[in-house]
Amino acid sequence: MKEYAGKDASYAFAENIVNTGFDQLPVRAVEAAKKSLLDTLGVMVGATGTTPALRGIAELAAEMGGRTEATIIGFGAKAPAMMAAFANGAMAHCLDYDDIEYESVYHPSGAVVPAGFAIAEKNRPLSGKEFITAIALGQDLGIRMALAIPPQRKPPWHRAVVVGTFAAAATAAKILRLDTEHVVDTLGNALCQAAGSLELRWGVGTDLGGMYAGFSAKAGVFSALLAENGIGGIKSSFDGKAGFFNLYFDGKCDRDKLLSGLGQNITGAETALKPWPACAANNTYVFGTLDLMREHHIRADDIERITVYVGDYAQKNCEPLAARRRPVSAPDAKFSLPFSVAVAAVKGNLSIDSFSPSALEDREILAMTERIDPEYDAKFDISAGMPPGALRIKTKQGKTFHVEKTLPYGHPDSPLSWDQIKLKAVDCFGHGLKPISAENVNKVVTLCENLEHVRDIAEIMELLA
Q1: What's the pLDDT at 1?
Q2: CATH topology of domain 280-405
Q3: Cβ pair 283, 275 in contact under 8 A
């Protein structure tokens, strides 16, 4: 770990961002960035046809006027890069299907990819190699910041929002080819805009729970453009008296996780892609439900009760219990542990359509949610990374079956294959607001899989416009 005596940690990241090129990236990091790119594009397009509130976001972005620099995916409009980043970023988490790094419990691509595309289109042409590098470095900075934050039992800040602003800023700065001092300025500018209350998740009835990455992507692009235009940013955005860690996390920072191996270990290589469009905390229990029912040939009609054993992290997806058993919106349903488990038990899988308006009123699913009981067990409290979970199914025949899952499916130790990622992306593209031809879908998939050979990354956005 290289220390910068008398200098803020932002200088270490700035030098790494400036000095790291495609040839310095490990193969695993390159593959992870390409997979995350295709995965993120898919979930963004899928959100346009399943989240009505996004129309208002897209219309607002287009109505703001200014130069038509970057594409708003799925709506056939262009807007200034900053507003396109906002609109596209707002799509990235609506399905709760975007990637995640499980040790930090952080979504690394939701703000980074939209910010990267917005700047890439504004400053085209940008090669695939340059884009991969910018995405990988943005992911790496964000994951390192998230890892450096000590676990909190009741965190007030939504780390994906506050950290995502810095990650998006790093990606935008790399694409703009800023020098070290201007990257430091970019990160300092980001500090002035990083915000996001975890009430986004604790509360119910809001559209913003799925749209938060739009704020981070927009702020990241704006931060880099400010620096490019000579606006001097805060030089102590990480370690200052009111810098990131002192301001948001009581001065607590694991410096080793923040800086160790910087430039050699690209943490985005540990990114996981989700097999089901629901909160990652729920996925562990969905995995367990499907496994138990498959292994013991249990039918939904056989189930008398399901007990889900939850720690503090998953418990928030069970409270208030009555509301979680009968969610009134797709965002609420995705963060309802009883609803996710009920869908898995009744339908044998979770898909994008599992959270449609008709699914929220499905009598069989709602009857099953009433048979799902959360039971707190401190053994499953969050300490570091995504905590394990367990559940018990009791059948009407008096039999009980128990399972504990340590890792969710999709974790790097149990990853999705390229073929599975392609199938997921194609399914997501099929849920878009406007049809995308099979030919264009295949072109996008091929371009992402072979991204290092692409001459102009904006070709992808043209296929999705």
Answers
A1: 42
A2: 60s Ribosomal Protein L30; Chain: A; (3.30.1330)
A3: yes
